Amino acid sequence: MMSKSRHQPMESVVTSVNYGQMRMKILIVDDHPVVLDGLVLMLKELLNPAEILTAADGKRACELVNEHRDVDWIFLDINLPDIDGIDLLRQFDKKKITANTVVLSSSNDPGAIDKALKSNASGFLSKSFVRSELRKCIDAVQSGRTYLNIELQRELTSYRQCVLADRQYVESIMTDKQMQTLSLLAAGYSNREIAVSFEVTESTIKSRVKTLMTIFNADNRTHCVHEARRLGFV
Known about the structure:
By secondary structure, this protein is of the alpha/beta class. It is about 50% helix and about 15% strand. It contains ten helices and six strands, in the order ββαβαβαβαβαααααα. It has helices at about 35-45, 60-65, 85-95, 110-120, 130-140, 150-175, 175-185, 190-200, 200-215, 220-230, and strands at about 15, 25-30, 50-55, 75, 100-105, 125. Strands 1-3-2-4-5-6 form a six-stranded mixed β-sheet, with helices on both faces. β4 (about 75), α3 (about 85-95) and β5 form a beta-alpha-beta unit. It is elongated. The relative contact order is 0.09.
């Protein structure tokens, strides 16, 4: 089992293993040295011969991807010090990086899993995985399948069913003006700024925001935006 221990970010390194065969090129993006070192050792066994590159943050990961566009695999921590892992995954997709990308997380949040898979992740692994599960993941992805263990599949199915039902309900009652207000709210605009944008009074916007909080069953503005993001409205 891989343990999690946070230290200062490591400098990027390259570990090369070559037995005269065509080498896999692998990028690991994780700022936890213990997790990173353990994954390097496992991948050396499972995907040898391999060239393994590591990055402790999103900035360095982007630099390495730009330098090594032929990378075959990316193992990506969802929680990085400078960027959300899902956002980085989307950046890789925009750069047309074709590597098999497996997202790693210490949390089994089905919302995060859903976002990762919808952002073209090849698989999702909890950081509590063992060598045998990593092997299953690699085998599945190499066979053209998306990897998610059975327990996480069940949680994701349940999550998607609940989210779909909630989203359909909100869509059925929310007006265009409320949707526009929600977008500005999520962007950080104040009631006064939103009122100016719509050329209405601030009290009108306060009332609209209150209605939005009721629709999303939220206690405050921040909670409202969080629920809107969960359902994919912003």
